Amino acid sequence: MKALISHNPGGPETLVLESIPDPEPKAGEVLVATKACGVNYPDVLTIQDLYQTKPPRPFAPGTEIAGVVEKTGAGVAAFKVGDKVFGSIGHGGMAEKVAVPADRLSPIPDGMSFEDASAFSSMYNTSYMALKDRAEIKPGERLLVLGAAGGVGIAAVELGKAFGAHVIAAASSQQKVDAAKKAGADEGVVYPRGPFDRAGQKALADLFKSVAGEKGFDVVYDPVGGDYAEAALRSMAWGGRFLVVGFPAGIPKIPLNLPLLKTCQIVGVYSGGFKKEHPQKSRENTKAIIELYKKGVIRPLVSKTYPLEKGGDAIAALAAREALGKVVVTI
């Protein structure tokens, strides 16, 4: 089979398309013929050895897949050959075939394409867990979503509306804000690109405060980090919840007097860790998300697809923060 392989730490240009032996499913695993692979920001970091989990090399990047079960390992009863499945797998998705633990997969709902299925698991599970389990968001609360046109950002906008929140989408261009508003955001704000000097940081904080409402944001969903984090935190409501999701703009340093004065919470969101610590709750969340999809409440935004040999370009698009919604590698 063919796979896009990382042999050494580096950028997307270091990935090599090559032929490798087909994997064999072990007990509890299934062999999936991959049809589509969703690309996520962890792929940018993993190939550089900058992510919190470091797979042994050589490996194929690609954190979530959709495809068809080709073979089942011993003890697998949930799936049979020919089933259409999707799920988050950590790495290995940019390959024609991948062996996956069966408990990481779910059946693809009727009517969902492989492209949509490969863009579904990570962004919606992350945002659902963040808003529902970590922030316990309530109807009527004001939710600020940073990076609102990215994969998890769009998902947070859609799910925030589904949970009854008033959603304010923030992004780096009017095109991105418009995409978030099309996904359901009530309001939008365009922020400048950083990094910022002290005057720029104050202006950014004032920008967020201008759309925060009288009491401030009840929940901030931050998959961006960098200078944006502190600026958004300054517009929090008393008792608000600040969700730490990711850091493409850099890991922020937060003055701890801010959460003290606002009596707000800074809450970590790590979907992979949540699945490991709470596997049953994670499966329940996936079922709930699929039901929202079936009802038409949520729909993945796949803005561009790439063939397997151009998988590095898909990762580069995320690294440059150019993508709207999700980009997908088709196989």
Descriptive account of the structure:
By secondary structure, the chain is α/β, with parallel strands linked by helices. The protein is built from 11 helices and 15 strands. Helix 3 (121-134) packs across helix 4 and helix 6 (198-210) crosses helix 7.
Features:
alpha/beta, 7-stranded mixed sheet, 6-stranded parallel sheet, 331 residues
Question: What structural class should be given to the helix and strand makeup?
Answer: alpha/beta
**Portion in strands:** 25-35%
What oligomerization state is this entry in?
single chain
DSSP, total strands: 15
Q: What proportion of the residues is helical, as a percent range? A: 25-40%
Gross morphology: globular
Question: Which residues form runs of ≥5 with pLDDT under 50?
Answer: none
Output the number of helix runs. 11
Order of helices and strands: EEEHEEEEHHEHEHEHEHEHEHHEHE
Output mean pLDDT: 95
Q: For the CA atoms, what is the radius of gyration?
A: 20 Å
| Main pleated-sheet profile | 7 strands, mixed
Distance between the termini: 11 Å
